């Protein structure tokens, strides 16, 4: 059979045709026509169906207004019937029986939240990898050639495309908007890859053609990542999805260049050049990066036109993914990790974390005069530490850690190991212009900490006295867990009142509770003289008081 007869052959099979005879004439159009026919035919059917339903709906509206005595009027939707009621026409939904049942069953079967949906997602990814592997294997052969139906590569590819056909039909059944589903990227991949397989079955003639579009199925790998939960970090997940999309776009573009350069322009077979797929991958990367070494280039008119648009698309792709890369780089900060639990105790400090509050807290909490204090302080704050705070943390890196996060986020509380902490300390902004808002924010932090670990000891600073009443309604907050509230206004007013009764009491109390390093004093201090001086200050005797330096 001559090659011209092959191009006109639409039924039956070609058996025993040699490769030399298959190379006489190119017949790419017998593979392209089914692709165009499938897409345009289905699109036309959807549009016509919508137009008919729209016209039917208008006719039903006229029927409803002109025949008011009618009992039943059909609406444009096949599931809706208009019934005459006491107050006029009302809608009533009627089941379509078997069709609706099938649609619901298929929808539940494809839902990623169900076990069957997860299995389907995994199968789709596996068959995608298989079809891509067969494409890579066949890319080293002739673009157009005759094959045997017993060819292992063809059989494997046929099974994969059979699954994709079934998956496409299931997606079409459950789609609420058939037109939107028909124009999806996954649908276009099916249009360009499945009909040519049918032609190959009929004619035993294959064309590599648009099989490179199967590489775009790698985008579905993001569904596998979401299902398995392999990646926990949101920024890393976004970067992974962006990388998958980029590589899919890159390798698919290389496949188009490989096809058109090896096959040549449809009107000029002499424009073809022998170029491997790996060389096309190298060429597309050099072109997309705008480097352009010039050692490789497109020789066909279609290839050159494609490169023009490919450069623009590549630059746009780089620009769209740059923020994702920047966000991920920011997460590589030492403050984005997790606190590694040690044998030593640790406390979590959150709330108003600033240079002043951190300095004052650490100066007192890590004072050298505190005996047997080997506790680690872990600060949790939403902002990256300032230069001064970062310098302080580096100087005390064995005792202080800083984690960037929010005390209102359960994941961040797990990062600081709140469930293993000795206590959670919530600091307040004493100089806040909105004390009610500051107290409300700290109360929310207390609630979040208790939700994360009900037995955690919480010490919270509040400004307003009235805010203490709210804490009494928080489940698990109370003296039983060692929780405590430090009300700044209450403490100030109480000290002032006591100082009015006993002048000098505020000074004495401040000196008593503050940690100060004084020069070494001999142990032979006159304790009796100290007691007398204290008695004169407070106005009454102090029993068993020991001066501490």
Reconstruct the topology from this structure.
Elements (H helix, E strand, L loop, with lengths): L2 H6 L10 H4 L6 H38 L5 E3 L5 E6 L2 E6 L4 H13 L4 H24 L5 E3 L5 H23 L3 H5 L2 H19 L1 E3 L13 H8 L5 H30 L13 H12 L12 H31 L14 E6 L3 H11 L10 E6 L5 H9 L4 E5 L5 H6 L7 E5 L7 H18 L5 E5 L5 H4 L12 E4 H14 L3 H9 L13 H12 L11
Parallel strand pairs: 6-7, 6-9, 7-8, 9-10, 10-11
Antiparallel strand pairs: 1-2, 2-3, 4-5
Q: Which structural class should the secondary elements be placed in?
A: alpha/beta
Strand fraction equals: 5-15%
Tell me which oligomeric state these chains represent. single chain
Helix content: 40-55%
Please summarize the sheet with the most strands: 6 strands, parallel
Straight-line distance between termini: 110 Å
Given as residue ranges, the uncertain stretches (5+ residues, pLDDT < 50) are 1-6, 8-20, 67-96, 521-528, 533-549
Count the DSSP helices.
20
């Amino acid at each position: 059979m001559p090659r011209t007869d092959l191009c006109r052959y639409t039924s039956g099979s070609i058996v025993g045709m040699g490769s030399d005879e298959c190379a006489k004439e190119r017949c790419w159009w017998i593979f392209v026509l089914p692709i165009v026919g499938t897409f345009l035919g289905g699109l036309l059917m959807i549009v016509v169906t919508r137009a008919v339903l729209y016209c039917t709906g208008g006719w039903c509206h006229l029927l409803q207004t002109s025949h008011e005595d009618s009992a039943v009027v059909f609406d444009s939707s096949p599931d809706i019937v208009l019934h005459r009621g006491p107050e006029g026409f009302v809608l009533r939904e009627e089941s379509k029986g078997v069709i609706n049942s099938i649609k619901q069953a298929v929808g539940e079967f494809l839902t990623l939240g169900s076990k069957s949906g997860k299995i389907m997602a995994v199968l789709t990814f596996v068959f995608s990898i298989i079809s891509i592997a067969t494409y890579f294997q066949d890319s080293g052969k002739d673009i157009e050639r005759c094959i045997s139906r017993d060819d292992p590569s063809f059989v494997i590819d046929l099974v994969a495309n059979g699954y994709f056909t079934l998956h496409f039909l299931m997606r079409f059944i459950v789609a609420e908007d058939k037109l939107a589903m028909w124009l999806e990227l996954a649908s276009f991949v099916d249009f360009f890859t499945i009909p040519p397989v049918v032609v190959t079955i009929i004619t035993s003639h294959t064309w590599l053609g648009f099989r490179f579009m199967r590489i775009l199925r790698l985008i579905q790998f993001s569904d596998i990542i979401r299902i398995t939960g392999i990646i926990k970090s949101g920024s890393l997940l976004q970067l992974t999805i962006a990388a998958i999309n980029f590589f899919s776009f890159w390798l698919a573009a290389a496949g188009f260049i490989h096809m058109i350069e090896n096959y040549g322009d449809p009107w000029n077979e002499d424009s073809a050049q022998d170029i491997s797929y790996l060389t096309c991958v190298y060429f597309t990367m050099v072109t997309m990066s705008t480097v352009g070494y010039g050692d490789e280039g497109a020789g066909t008119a279609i290839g050159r036109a494609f490169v023009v648009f490919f450069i623009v698309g590549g630059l746009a792709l780089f620009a769209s993914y740059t923020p994702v890369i920047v966000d991920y780089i920011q997460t590589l900060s030492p403050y984005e990790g997790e606190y590694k639990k040690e044998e030593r105790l640790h406390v979590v400090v959150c709330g108003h974390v600033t240079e002043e509050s951190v300095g004052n807290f650490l100066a007192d909490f890590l004072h050298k005069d505190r005996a047997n204090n080997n506790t680690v302080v872990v600060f949790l704050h939403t902002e990256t530490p300032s230069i001064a705070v970062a310098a302080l943390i580096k100087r005390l890196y064995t005792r202080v850690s800083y984690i960037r996060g929010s005390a209102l986020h359960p994941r961040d509380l797990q990062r600081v190991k709140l469930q293993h902490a000795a206590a959670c300390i919530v600091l307040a902004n004493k100089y806040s212009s909105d004390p009610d808002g500051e107290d409300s924010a700290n109360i929310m932090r207390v609630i979040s900490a208790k939700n994360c670990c009900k037995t955690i000891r919480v010490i919270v600073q509040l400004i307003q006295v009235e805010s203490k009443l709210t804490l009494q309604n928080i489940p698990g907050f109370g003296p039983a867990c060692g929780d405590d509230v430090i009300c700044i206004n209450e403490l100030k007013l109480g000290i002032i009142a006591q100082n009015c009764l006993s002048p000098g009491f505020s000074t004495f109390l401040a000196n008593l509770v503050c940690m100060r390093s004084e020069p070494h004093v001999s142990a032979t201090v006159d304790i009796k003289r100290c007691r007398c001086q204290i008695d004169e200050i407070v106005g009454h005797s102090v029993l068993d008081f020991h001066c501490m330096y």
